[in-house]
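hey can u check if this looks right to u? its 211 residues, i copy pasted from the old doc so theres a chance i mangled smth
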Amino acid sequence: MSNITIDPTKKQEKILDFIAKYFRKYGNSPSFRDIAEEFEISVGTIQGQLTSLGNKGLISWIPGRQRSIRIQRDRQTYNTVPLPLLGTISAGEGVAVFEESDPEIINVPTPMITSGFNHYCLKVSGFSMSEDGILDGDLIVVRQQSNVQDGDTVVAIINDGLGEKANLKKFYHHGRKIELMPRNQQLQSKFYDPEQIEVRAKFCGLIRKEE
């Protein structure tokens, strides 16, 4: 009995290509709605196409998790760069600043790396960035820098008089106040004096370990 290879349809090839390009640009996968809007079809139709691709072993995703699509047989391969996993970053109320003395090494795709900058990985704790697809337990790649722009997702160290806490939030500068904005409709932004905030890094990409 001969082996049979189940290949994607032409429409599915376009969907796979869109997912791969989206990941390279944003560091995480598109949502079902993002894909539906790209191809101007319903979310239900996209779910059917993605289910078919999953049955063919070409993609996987975690049910109930946003932006968890992963391509299992991407035709493009990338070199990787080893980066240290230096500690935990809070996508919540903040965690005490801590760096691992003997960090785990994570292999990171080179498209997430910018030449001339120092990069490292952090483990996410909390769900305040869930609407950007950054979930509890995810690993993020960050670029060490203090100069960021409004709307950037940043690693911010907050000193509120109770000790330093590391936090992952959207950054906005409002004159005399710094806004750290969550991406979760159940949570609200917090505002700080500039001297209370130290920006240490900018978010570059997400790595979700297989469960």
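The chain has two domains: 10-71, 84-207.
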